[in-house]
Amino acid sequence: MRNKVINIIYRIVFLIAIYAFSQHYYTKNLNFTEDFEVIIGEASTTPANWVGSKDVDKNISILILAGHADSQGLAGAGTPGEAVDKYGLNPMHPEISDELFWNLKLQESIVKIGKQKGLNIRSYDPGIRYIDDANDPRTNWSVGRQFAKRGGYALEIHFDAYGKYGIGSGLIPPFSETPNKIDESIAKTFGRFPILFRGGLGAPRRQIRILEIGKLEGLLEKNLRNIKTRRKTINLLSNKIVQAILNGMVQKSNI
Ligand SMILES: [Zn+2]
Predict the structure, then answer these.
(1) What is the CA(102)–ligand 1 centre distance, in A?
(2) What is the pTM assigned to this prediction?
(3) Which of 23, 57, 183, 206 has its CB surrounded by the most CB atoms within 10 Å?
């Protein structure tokens, strides 16, 4: 009789142990890290010595562009990402690069959160995914250029290539305009690239800022692809971008 009781107790303990272990394993794998620096990965270490010190009016109009929205099928379609290119997973969408897929998701989220927080912010999407001429009036760059000319803040978002093909997160400031406090604030959060990065790219030459959010690889890409962590990851990144913009604006004096 005593042996029987001990036997039952053993079994119960064993089952509890298995249950506890499986619960731990399950939650561990669902665990979402809120650590922003860990998620975006390495920042650019390319030497950059610019400082954004020009004041920005708090009502400045802001335009968010999704990088490569008009250059699909061309050489500049954006990175396919580590999951597709290195591990052979299916692209997120059959007709566009994974980078553009995520750029569009981020664009929508940044504008939504920005509006909620009182920013004068909007997006532009050319809709046409292949425009051969960068100077066509419908491209990101043409619309961004006009926007910047009128005094607005145009920001084109990107994800950098994975592994040795990419550099990391950071902001590329405009080519001939003096970097301002929003540029400085974004660079403090994401890192900074030199003004003359790769000889001065097409967007910065049109006074459009480029933000590389992070390399499309590792934890960042996994958290975006995993349906359970996707929304949280997009929100986390968008909130950081909106907060950085807000921090760079001149606050209204209470006096
Ligand atoms: Zn890109």
Answers:
(1) 10
(2) 0.86
(3) 183
- pLDDT tens-digit readout, 127-145: 999 999 999 999 999 999 9
Distance 159 CA to ligand 1 centre (A): 5
User: Which residues crowd ion ligand 1, with CB under 5 Å?
Assistant: 67, 78, 158
Residue-range domains of the chain with CATH = 31-253 (3.40.630.40)
**In this structure, what are the phi and psi dihedrals at residue 177, rounded to the nearest 5 degrees?**
-90, 145
Find the 68 Cα to ligand 1 centroid distance in Å.
6
Instruction: Give me the helix-helix angle, 230-247 and 218-225, nearest 10°.
Output: 120
CB 236 within 8 A of CB 183: no
Mean pLDDT of 232-238: 97
Separation between Cα atoms, residue 198 and residue 183, nearest integer Å: 19
- DSSP 8-state assignment for residue 208: -
In the predicted model, what is the mean pLDDT of the chain?
91
Give residue-wise pLDDT tens across range 57-89: 999 999 999 999 999 987 789 999 999 999 999
Place of tokens 């000319």: 149
Q: 121-124 and 170-172: which strand pairing?
A: unpaired
What phi and psi values does residue 215 have, to the nearest 5 degrees? -75, 140
CA of 99 from ligand 1 middle (Å) equals 7
Beta bridge partners of 54: 180
CA–centroid distance, 169 to ligand 1, in Å, is 11
Rounded Cα gap, residues 127 and 129, in angstroms: 6
